[in-house]
Design goal:
Helices cover 52% and strands 14% of the residues. The protein is of the alpha/beta class. The strands form 4 sheets. Strands 6-3-2-12-13 form a 5-stranded parallel β-sheet. The longest helix is centred in the last third of the chain and has 32 residues.
Length: 543
């Protein structure tokens, strides 16, 4: 596979300023995304981590998930007091979810490899599966092509009342419905030499899984069998047991954490940075897991009582502290406290994040400091666009600029093509005719105006009807032109669907299954082994 670096636009001002180390935004971070290593290592070496407990907990998960030997070896490296980690994470999407989950994993693996060579100490890749997340709507679907030019969303129908209430790792795993969903996804694939192998692999992994997080983990291990990726489910009871003291600390400092986050968000917005994170000083930034109500986000009342939004749950500070000590599996983090919990658990050299994570982490620096932590360096993840041979030929056929398509789509190029093929100048002729008609019609409107308001209105309505008829004819004439070039228009629309689906990057819509169907189950493993991507942010992969 040939690889080519590409430059694409970043529309988020905060992310652009962060990548450029702009002083206006870097004050919201402890480190830049480059040249952070020595300062960060000094910080890590002055801290202590529950390495033995962490390795034992993740080892249990790996054993249950059938982790490959390479991942076990990397996990054991963390027992070395010098060892550090590169960390990334994502929800447990079906069939991994959109391509960007795979891209995060590739970013984590390759950054860890590079830093280990550079620093001469063990640097392991860790991927944090957000099994505590309860938003089933975010992971229950994928997009499939229905024609050469259109895609539709296929959702996994889970009728359980717990869907959207319980954490994904706790949600009932309905294998039969998931099997039906997988069948529908594979029906959208064109049969290739690899399709049957992929299908068999997916069915085997599904048969051996008992939760969405486990299905995700086992599938990832199949895609990256030799790269040593370490996986953990943030909602696993084995992990929760280690977090007990950390929950206590967050509970103790809730008021300070919440105030700092709200204050920073207000500052960022004052400076016209867009941030999709809302917070109040009453937010606890912790979830409580109730058997009947599911996962509920806690708030703190003035009296110091911890409640959910509907006030169905009421916990005193002492009761919540007791839960943290005796039943930490009943608690979980939200987007504010999850990064801090990660920092407590793992000696993190760097965190690999996408634009959304860079944005909301910008509000967390002071909260980290309250817990006597430093926010880790955030390294922007690598992104990819995959280009098959047919799509490549279409780009050449119409002499199209790929970066422009990735940034803006093909609409402008399609219209330019049609304009070039329109020898009749239909739009120009139509506009000229409408102007002439309005001028010719003017004497009638003048007479009508002199006869009263009613007849004046009628004359104006009459002109409007005439202009609408001309506009109708223009559309019909243009449609005839489009019929003549229906094949070419379809090819432009296909380019849009492949390269900028739903007006966004390919990686946000397309599932990895389609890349695997083109190049085999091991396509991502080969990418990691045979190419280095860490020094550029976006790459074109020629399939």
């Amino acid at each position: 596979m040939k690889t080519t670096p590409l430059s694409i636009q970043t529309t988020n001002k905060l992310v652009t300023h962060y990548k450029n180390n702009d002083k206006s935004v870097m004050r919201y971070f402890d480190y830049s995304s480059n040249q952070y290593e020595q300062k960060r290592l000094e910080y890590i070496n002055n801290r202590t981590y529950q390495r033995q407990n962490f390795v034992e907990a993740v080892h249990k998960l790996h054993k249950k998930w059938g982790a490959p030997e390479a991942s076990m070896v990397q996990l054991n490296k963390l027992l070395d007091e010098q060892a550090v980690a590169v960390v990334g994470g994502q929800q447990a999407g079906l069939l991994t979810g959109p391509l960007y989950s795979i891209h995060k994993i590739i970013s984590v693996i390759q950054l860890a490899e590079e830093q280990e060579k550079k620093l001469g100490i063990p640097v392991v890749p860790i991927f944090w599966i957000a099994g505590e997340d309860h938003d089933f709507e975010e992971i229950n679907h994928t997009y499939v092509p229905t024609t050469n030019t259109k895609m539709k969303k296929i959702k996994l129908q889970n009728k359980s009342i717990d869907a959207g209430r319980k954490s994904v790792s706790d949600l009932e795993f309905e294998k039969d419905k998931l099997r039906e969903w997988i069948e529908n996804v594979f029906l959208s694939l064109k049969e290739t030499d690899y399709t049957q192998d992929i299908y068999s692999l997916v069915q085997t992994v599904l048969s051996n899984s008992n939760s969405y997080s486990e299905f995700f983990a086992k599938f990832i291990f199949q895609l990256f069998p030799n790269q040593g990726i370490i996986l953990l489910d943030s909602h696993a009871s084995e992990i929760r047991e280690i977090e007990s003291d950390f929950f206590l600390e967050m509970i103790q400092h809730q008021q300070e954490i919440s105030a700092s986050v709200k204050s920073t968000i207000d500052k960022l917005r004052t400076e016209e940075y867009s941030i999709s994170l809302d917070a109040t000083e009453d937010d606890a930034h912790l979830f409580y897991h109730d058997e009947q109500l599911g996962r509920v986000l806690l708030q703190v009342e003035k009296e110091g009582v911890w409640v959910d939004k509907q006030h169905n749950i009421r916990l005193t500070l002492e009761e919540l502290q007791s839960i943290a000590i005796n039943s930490p599996h009943l608690l979980s983090n939200n987007v504010v406290t999850r990064p801090m919990m990660q920092e407590k658990l793992i000696p993190t050299l760097a965190f690999v994040g996408g634009p959304g994570e860079i944005t909301y982490w910008s509000a967390l620096k002071d909260a980290f400091h309250i817990l006597e932590l430093e926010m880790p360096p955030i390294v922007p993840r690598i992104s990819f666009t995959y280009l098959d041979r047919y799509t490549s030929r279409l780009l050449d056929k119409y002499n199209l600029d790929l970066p422009k398509i990735l940034n803006r789509g093909v609409k402008e190029d399609k219209q330019r093509f049609l304009n070039e093929k329109n020898d009749y100048n239909i739009d120009e002729v139509t506009e000229e005719l409408k102007t002439q008609l309005s001028d010719i019609h003017q004497p009638l409107r003048d007479i009508a105006a002199s006869l009263g308001d009613d007849i004046k209105a009628l004359s104006e309505s009459n002109l409007s009807y005439l202009l609408k008829d001309i506009e109708f004819l223009r559309k019909r004439l243009n449609n005839e032109i489009k019929k003549t070039y229906a094949i070419e228009i379809s090819e432009f629309d296909r380019l849009e669907m492949i390269l900028r689906p739903n007006n966004g990057l390919q990686e946000r819509i397309w599932n990895p299954i389609y890349v695997m169907n083109c190049c085999g189950v091991d396509v991502f493993s080969r990418l990691v082994n045979n190419h280095s991507f860490v020094h550029e942010e976006h790459w074109m992969i020629h399939l």
